[in-house]
Structure formats: C-alpha cells, structure tokens
Amino acid sequence: MMKCPNCKKISPDEDSKCDCGYLFPTIYSSPVIVKDIEMKFFSMMWFMVKWAFAAIPAMIIIAIIVAFVMMLLGGFTTSLIDS
Ligand SMILES: [Zn+2]
Predict the structure, then answer these.
(1) Residue 2 C-alpha to ligand 1 middle, in angstroms?
(2) How far is the CA of 10 from the centre of ligand 1 (A)?
(3) Residue 45 has what pLDDT?
(4) Residue pair 23/17 in contact by the 8 Å Cβ criterion
(5) 29 CA to middle of ligand 1, Å?
(6) CB 1 within 8 A of CB 10
C-alpha cells in the first residue's frame, strides 16, 4: 500500500498513479524498464551477430567483384601501355 503525499489517499501497490494525478516514485516499474533495456540490448547484439554472419558471404562476393574489377583495370591499363 502507498500513501499519496499529495492527497493522503491510500493506493494499492500496483498503482503507479494516484487518483489526484500524483505519480508515485515507482520502485516496481524500474526493474522492468531495466530488464526491457537489457532485452533490447541483447536482441540488438544478437541481431548484430547474425548480421555479421550474414555479411561474410556478401564480403566475399564484394572481394571477388573488387578483385575482378582490379584485374580488368590492371589488364586494361597494361594493354594501354603495351599499345
Ligand atoms: Zn493523491
């Protein structure tokens, strides 16, 4: 039970707000918020791990494309020099 310092009304613990509009300093809701942030952080970390794994084949493809372009450019410039 919580007593409102504003209107002195007794409110049940689960109430975060008094009938008069006073917001109780909620000790009950804060760990929930922390847990929620932790969950978001964990899911974000997991998403980043999955993304990193998904990026590996893409990186290989990009490396192949870059190597191919470099090879083409290299071949092109050497053929220019040769002629
Ligand atoms: Zn009140």
Answers:
(1) 10
(2) 8
(3) 92
(4) yes
(5) 19
(6) yes
The alpha carbon of 26 and the centre of ligand 1 are apart by a number of angstroms equal to: 14
Rounded CA separation 28/72 (Å): 65
- At residue 47, the pLDDT reads 92
Write the CB contacts of 66 (distance below 8 Å, at least 6 apart in sequence). none
Q: Are 46 and 54 in contact (CB under 8 A)?
A: no
Give the DSSP per-residue string, 3-67: E-TTT--EE-TT-SB-TTSPBP--TTHHHHHHHHHHHHHHHHHHHHHHHHHHHHHHHHHHHHHHH
* Domain range list for the chain: 2-82
Q: What is residue 78's DSSP assignment? A: H
Q: In which residue ranges of the chain is pLDDT below 70?
A: 26-33, 76-83
Distance CA(6)–CA(22), nearest Å, equals 7
Please give the distance, rounded to the nearest whole angstrom, from the Cα atom of residue 41 to the centre of ligand 1: 36
